[in-house]
């Protein structure tokens, strides 16, 4: 069975990715970052999700700021509480005492070679874990990252995507030390929008997961309509689809990807060496296209709408 360790900042699209993970795999731990909203909210939301699906997964709180510079959250998209300000009850469960970065190290030591690591938020916890234990990648056969904008069309500044733009130094640490990872970027997300009506028909399913997602996604659905996005774009769900079913990837290219740390206009941009100019080996498999039907089928099942 596919065993997942998920680093995430829930977040409305993170929540859908988590529902997909619970439907299609086993989740051994959730390490939580600040990002979409502050850490107290992202931890609470992760605990809510674990309760919703009736799981026992340990939740580990991680870093509450980026490694170096402060950054703005995305509450205007995800709501002040990160779950669309839907007024969900507080969870009864609590987070573990262990820090998320230490949990990433320990859990991969306990199951070396077994876990797929899926990173759905800013890479702060993972960067810290890598600095504490540079041998971490040797124990993790797959790292799937949602992040970046591979041809320079970002969503948080002109060229930067949110997860990388929120904490560029952490992304730099991960991208420059992890030998091979899979990257699902914002531009791929934009090519895999889901028609709003279609998505809303799934939300009408007679299932607690659909009912919960209907509530927490109301705000983001309105936001996407205002911005005339190509349907509902769900970045973390797409990354999770790749993690869950690697063979749903139709097109991908191996390239070297680096993170810009300094540019006054380009801080947080992902610089892809499309033409092999820098002579560095490819560190990323950039996902360009996924089987849309399979992607949607994974979501339908995760919402109980099948
Ligand atoms: C990414 O940023 C967050 O707002 C989403 O949860 C996703 O991880 C998309 O750029
Ligand atoms: Ca996220």
Automatic annotation (TrEMBL):
Q: InterPro entries in the record, alphabetically? A: Inosine/uridine_hydrolase_dom (IPR001910), IUN_hydrolase (IPR052775), Ribo_hydro-like (IPR036452)
Q: Which SUPFAM superfamilies match?
A: Nucleoside hydrolase (SSF53590)
Q: Which GO terms describe its molecular function?
A: hydrolase activity, hydrolyzing N-glycosyl compounds
Q: Where is the signal peptide?
A: none
Q: Which residues form the Inosine/uridine-preferring nucleoside hydrolase domain?
A: 4-296
Coiled-coil intervals: none
Question: What protein name applies here?
Answer: Purine nucleosidase
Q: State the PANTHER family in the record.
A: SI:CH211-201H21.5, SI:CH211-201H21.5-RELATED
Q: Which domain of life is it from?
A: Bacteria
Spell out the Pfam families in the cross-references.
IU_nuc_hydro
